[in-house]
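Q: Could you fold this chain for me?
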Amino acid sequence: MTMRFQLLSLVVIVSLAARGNCIRCYSCGSLEKGCDDPFDSSVVGSVECTTYNTSSYYGTEYEACYKAKLTIAGITSVIRGCGDVDVGNQCETYSGVEYCYYTCRTDECNGATFITSSVVLLMTSALTYLIIR
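A: Sure. Below is the predicted structure, expressed as structure tokens.
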């Protein structure tokens, strides 16, 4: 086998391994113990994000986890759950109200204080670059 074929095979395997039947996300709100930052995964459980146990508006499978953070007059509220799409990380401020929305695509990734991109995506991109180069 050539090196190029081996790398392509590895990229395909890693990409397929990253896609399971559904993603697992932490699901909670600030009123629940352990959900705020700093997050406590020993108290908060995760759920499989299927259309059967969560409310998907369009009946689609969930592909991402999210963490939404709202700060009003110094009081912060956090919500974690399943999301339809990965929109990245973004924060907006309107009239003194800060709203941040973080998304990610790996199991239980929405437990972190800051959510980063998937390691699998980074590896796939790097290997693809090496193959094409």
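A (continued): Residues 5-20, 116-130 have pLDDT under 50 and may be disordered.
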